[in-house]
Amino acid sequence: MPNGVNKGAVTAFWGKVKVDEVGAESLGRLLVVYPWTQRFFESFGDLSTAEAVFGNAKVKAHGKKVLDSFSEGLNHLDDLKGAFASLSELHCDKLHVDPENFKLLGNVLVVVLARHFGKEFTPELQAEFQKVVTGVANALAHRYH
Amino acid sequence: MVHFTPEEKAAVASLWVKVNVEVVGGESLARLLIVYPWTQRFFDSFGNLYSESAIMGNPKVKAHGRKVLNSFGNAIKHMDDLKGTFADLSELHCDKLHVDPENVRLLGNMILIVLASHFSKEFTPQMQAAWQKLTNAVASALAHKYH
Question: In the record, which residues are listed under signal peptide (chain B) (predicted)?
Fold first, then answer.
């Protein structure tokens, strides 16, 4: 488990998060801020501008899927490596995603939470979430070979 | 060398005029010290850093945060020559302060989070992209004279 994560604070805050919206926005921002990540989504159609990315239905759907998975991970903070084992193998063997990109997505998620919640996203909450996103990124990289 | 488009420069400048350097600088440094506690080792002389509220309220943290963010303000005026602009600060951070350049990158990420938190509407994806590019470029420039 990520070192000393305050599970109560994390899950209480997560209850306020609109997972669909935050998921779509996080994936969208990843694709705009780190454009090379678009290479994993060639089948999504037009990603050529920020407007195209944010209007793209496949980006929205996939963002929601990714964040649903992250949400589920929050129920398994004691065993993230176990919880993400199959997804880790998938991202290595089938999707060929450089694990560095999981860290980037985690950082984008933290920025999106700060944007949506302002002052409410206190430094303490930021510290907890940073541990969680790092833990999830590591868990997703764990089965890589 | 990092090249900023006219749109990126305009985006950065348009947000910068709204930034309260003391507030954003102080909060960014405080968040760095809270989220990445090992960074506190560089600030032994700052006194009480024993809790999040102590850090957020610490006047030396606020003052130093302002100083650091003013330096970013200088970067914004010299986006075409960040390495030159930060040459002396780079030598200082290497030779005197012994700061791992990775920590400068982390501070840059804190600035983005604080900007997102304070400027929710203005912090569009394009704005985030421009600022991420700037903070990464400043971190590189600060590492440039390390040996």
Answer: none
Residue A1: pLDDT over 80: no
Taking the CA of residue B31 and the nearest CA in chain A, the distance in Å comes to 6
> How many CB atoms sit inside 10 A of residue B139's CB?
21
Size of interface A-B (CB pairs under 8 A): 57
Nearest to A98 by CA among A46, A30, A51, A49: A30
Tokens of A58: 């496949």
Tell me how far CA of residue A1 lies from CA of A89, A90, A139, B45, B104, in angstroms: 20, 22, 10, 34, 27
Hey, what are B2's tokens? 């990092």
pTM, to two decimals: 0.94
Alpha helices (H) in chain A, listed in sequence order: 7-14, 19-33, 50-55, 57-74, 80-83, 85-89, 100-117, 123-141
B125/A29 CB distance under 8 A? yes
Pairwise CA distance, residues A31 & A49, whole Å: 10
Cα separation, B54 vs B140, in Å, equals 31
At A16, the pLDDT band (50, 70, 90 cuts) reads very high
Q: What average pLDDT does range B110-121 have in this prediction?
A: 98
pLDDT tier, B2 (very low <50, low <70, confident <90, very high otherwise): confident
How buried is residue A12: exposed, middle or buried, by Cβ count under 10 Å (0-12/13-18/19+)? exposed
Q: What is the ipTM of this complex?
A: 0.93
How far is it between the farthest Cα atoms of chain B? 44
Report CA A145 to chain centroid distance, whole Å.
22
DSSP B36: S
Average pLDDT over residues A94-98: 92
CB B122 within 8 A of CB A123: no
